[in-house]
Amino acid sequence: xxxxxxxxxxxxxxxxxxxxxxxxxxxxxxxxxxxxxxxxxxxxxxxxxxxxxxxxxxxxxxxxxxxxxxxxxxxxxxxxxxxxxxxxxxxxxxxxxxxxxxxxxxxxxxxxxxxxxxxxxxxxxxxxxxxxxxxxxxxxxxxxxxxxxxxxxxxxxxxxxxxxxxxxxxxxxxxxxxxxxxxxxxxxxxxxxxxxxxxxxxxxxxxxxxxxxxx
Length: 215
Fold this sequence. Notes:
Layout: E1 4-8, H1 12-23, E2 27-32, H2 35-41, E3 47-50, H3 56-59, E4 69-72, H4 78-90, E5 95-99, H5 103-111, E6 116-118, H6 120-132, E7 137-142, E8 147-152, H7 163-166, H8 168-172, E9 174-181, E10 184-186, E11 200-206
Parallel strand pairs: 1-2, 1-4, 2-3, 4-5, 5-6
Antiparallel strand pairs: 7-8, 8-11, 9-10, 9-11
């Protein structure tokens, strides 16, 4: 059974989130005061509802109580974010995730009931920094506070050598869990197969060990 998720506030972050959730098969409700934005989103999501996000009574009449998750996506509007978090929790939404512009706003949203606060701009900055630290890094995904998955091209000196020769697990304290080749992701990694320039490696490792790739 797919999750029912409401996204309150359809700015750039909210729009991208709602579209991605819909593509992944979730039942998605988007809520905003802008009818033009809602008209454009309506064909991609399950429900597109107009409501004043600063008005608790308005929010309590749109069916949020049927949602598994509510995402409060207005990082720049503290009043609307506070009202949205409080209204969602008051009607019994199990999990409320809120976007915040800074730590002060995040602290306030936690105090009024948000289960978790995210700082998308900060997180994007961290991911960009990780990628800039190495020409080989293509993408960086956090699993939790300590573990990440790194998507990277083989270093120049790795090309033509296999994983046994490179001894990546011991030298970098990293595990190659899959290799992408020609658009196909291969979960079985042959340690004797020489790496090619066009390969993309998916590597599971501790974030504290990322610096090893820059040595």
